[in-house]
Design a protein that fits this description.
Elements lengths: L6 H16 L3 E6 L6 H8 L5 E5 L5 H16 L10 H11 L5 E6 L4 H4 L2 H13 L5 E7 L8 E4 L5 H11 L5 H11 L3 H10 L4 H8 L6 H13 L3 H12 L5 H7 L6 H9 L4 E4 L12 E4 L2 H11 L2 H5 L3 H31 L2 E7 L9 E7 L4 E7 L8 H14 L5 E7 L5
Parallel strand pairs: 1-4, 1-5, 2-3, 3-4, 10-11
Antiparallel strand pairs: 6-7, 8-9, 9-10
Helix pairs in contact: 1-2, 4-6, 8-15, 8-17, 11-12, 11-15
Length: 426
C-alpha cells in the first residue's frame, strides 16, 4: 500500500533533520499506539540520507548491543569495537562519530529499555547533554510512551476521515457509506489494520468481517497481543478493565467492584494519559471535578475486539468461526450505530469549526441524553445532533424536547441548531 497522508509530520521531520545536520544535534520523540505507522513515517522522512536504525527488543543488554554493533558497522561503514557490551558505551561511540559526520539515529521501541536496564535513560540524557551542541546527529526515538526532555515531540494519530475516504476510493471505488463506516469501526484508521484489509480483500462490510473471522486470522488474538506487548506481565489488570468497560461497566466504582475491589486509579490514568486507549466522559460543560463520569474505549479496534473476539472467546477456541461471523453480521447495524456517533464527533473535530464537542446527559437517568452537542467558535451558538443509521427512525418532536431541556439546564443564552445525521451524511 502506498504511503498516505502524514504530510505535516514529514515536513516537520525534514525540517528538524536539516537543522540537525547544519546546526547541531536534535532529539525528536515520536509516540503513538502500536501499529500506528511510526517506523514507516520515519523511514520515509529520512529516505536518501545516512541513517542507523536500532530496534530495542526484549533481550539482555549485551545481546542487543551485539546486534546494534553489527548494524552500526554496516550502516556507517566503520569499525565498532566488539568489546562494547553496554548501550551507554555504544551511544557514547555514536555521539563521537556524529562530531565528524551528520547522520540519523533511529531508536525504535525506545520504552523497552525499561525492561532491560532503566538506568540507560539517565545515561543517554547525560551523554546527550554533553555532546548535542558539538555534533550533528538527528536522533529520533519511537515508542508508545515517553518521558524525558526532547527538542520535539510528535504524537502520531490514526488516519483522519479524509484519508480513509481516499483509501476507499483507491481500493474500492464503488464503496458505500456503510463500507466506509465498517472500515472506521474495525480499524479506527490504524494504518496497519487498514493495510491488511487493502492487501487482502475488497473493502465491503461482509468481506472485511469474513477476513477478520476465520482460522489463522491475525485479528483474533491481536487485542491480547497488543496489551501484552504494551504492558508486559501487568497486562491482566488492564485487560480486565477494558473487558469490563466493553461490557457496559463504565464507572470507576463499578469497574473496581467487578475486579474484586481492586484499586485501579493508576491504571485508568495510564490508559487515558499515556496510551489514549480509553477516554473519560462527562456531560458537556460539567465541571472537571464532577462525579458524573463514565469511561469508554476510544480505540475503535480494541473496542471492536473486546466486544466480539474477547466476549465470544469460546467460539474461537472451538473454531466455530461461522458462528462468530453470524453474530457480528447480525449485530453490525446496532454496533455500528454507536460508532457512527463517534464518526460524526471526529468529523466535527476535523472541521475546525467548534471549540467544544461532546455528549450531554443528565446525571440521573439517560432520558434526556443527546448524542452530540458542539459549541461553535462564534459566541453563544451551538448545534445539537441526534445520530441514526436511518433517518426514518428519527423522532423530531422527542428530540426537540430534549434540546429544550438542554437549553434550560446548560445553555440558556445559546442559539441551538438541531440536526439529525445518518449514514447518508458521512
Amino acid at each position: 500500500m502506498k504511503f498516505y497522508n502524514r504530510t505535516s509530520e514529514l515536513d516537520e521531520l525534514r525540517r528538524i533533520q536539516k537543522l540537525s545536520f547544519e546546526d547541531h544535534s536534535r532529539l525528536t520523540v515520536i509516540t503513538g499506539r502500536r501499529r500506528i505507522g511510526k517506523t514507516s513515517l520515519v523511514m520515509n522522512a529520512i529516505d536518501g540520507t545516512p541513517w542507523v536504525y536500532l530496534f530495542v527488543g526484549r533481550k539482555s543488554e549485551a545481546s542487543i548491543c551485539a546486534e546494534f554493533t553489527a548494524n552500526i558497522s554496516k550502516s556507517l561503514d566503520c569499525y565498532v569495537p566488539v568489546e562494547i557490551k553496554s548501550f551507554r558505551s555504544l551511544f557514547h561511540f555514536l555521539m563521537e562519530k556524529a562530531e565528524n559526520r551528520p547522520f540519523n539515529l533511529i531508536i525504535d521501541e525506545f520504552q523497552e529499555f525499561y525492561n532491560i536496564n532503566a538506568s540507560i535513560y539517565s545515561d543517554l540524557q547525560n551523554i546527550w547533554d554533553q555532546y548535542r551542541h558539538k555534533t550533528k546527529m538527528n536522533l529520533i526515538v519511537c515508542g508508545s510512551v515517553y518521558s524525558g526532555r526532547a527538542d520535539n515531540i510528535i504524537k502520531l494519530s490514526a488516519f483522519d476521515l479524509t484519508t480513509l475516504k481516499d483509501i476507499m476510493k483507491d481500493f474500492h471505488p464503488q464503496y458505500t457509506n456503510d463500507d466506509l463506516l465498517a472500515l472506521y469501526a474495525f480499524t479506527g484508521g490504524v494504518p496497519k489494520y487498514v493495510e491488511l484489509f487493502c492487501e487482502n480483500v475488497t473493502l465491503s462490510v461482509d468481506e472485511m468481517i469474513h477476513f477478520m473471522v476465520r482460522q489463522n486470522s491475525s485479528f483474533t488474538e491481536e487485542g491480547k497481543h497488543l496489551l501484552i506487548e504494551e504492558f508486559g506481565k501487568n497486562f491482566a489488570t488492564y485487560f480486565s478493565i477494558l473487558s469490563a468497560i466493553s461490557g457496559g461497566i463504565n464507572t470507576q466504582p463499578t469497574i473496581e467492584a467487578a475486579l474484586g475491589d481492586k484499586n485501579i486509579g493508576g491504571h485508568i490514568k495510564r490508559l487515558i494519559g499515556d496510551y489514549n486507549i480509553i477516554v473519560r466522559l462527562r456531560p458537556l460543560l460539567a465541571k472537571e471535578g464532577s462525579l458524573t463520569v463514565r469511561y469508554e474505549i476510544q480505540d475503535n479496534f480494541l473496542r471492536f475486539w473486546f466486544n466480539y473476539f474477547d466476549r465470544h472467546r469460546s467460539l474461537i477456541e472451538i473454531k466455530n468461526f461461522d458462528g462468530l461471523n453470524s453474530i457480528i453480521k447480525n449485530d453490525y447495524s446496532t454496533y455500528s450505530g454507536k460508532i457512527l456517533e463517534t464518526y460524526f464527533k471526529q468529523k466535527f473535530a476535523e472541521s475546525m469549526k467548534y471549540r467544544v464537542i461532546g455528549s450531554w446527559w443528565e446525571p440521573k437517568g439517560a432520558q434526556n441524553e443527546i448524542d452530540i452537542v458542539a459549541l461553535d467558535l462564534e459566541k453563544n451558538k451551538a448545534i445539537a445532533v441526534e445520530v441514526k443509521r436511518n433517518k426514518k427512525n428519527f423522532k423530531e418532536e422527542l428530540f426537540l424536547a430534549k434540546v429544550e431541556h438542554l437549553k434550560n439546564k446548560v445553555l440558556p443564552n445559546y442559539t441551538i441548531e438541531t440536526l439529525c445525521l445518518s449514514l447518508e451524511d458521512m
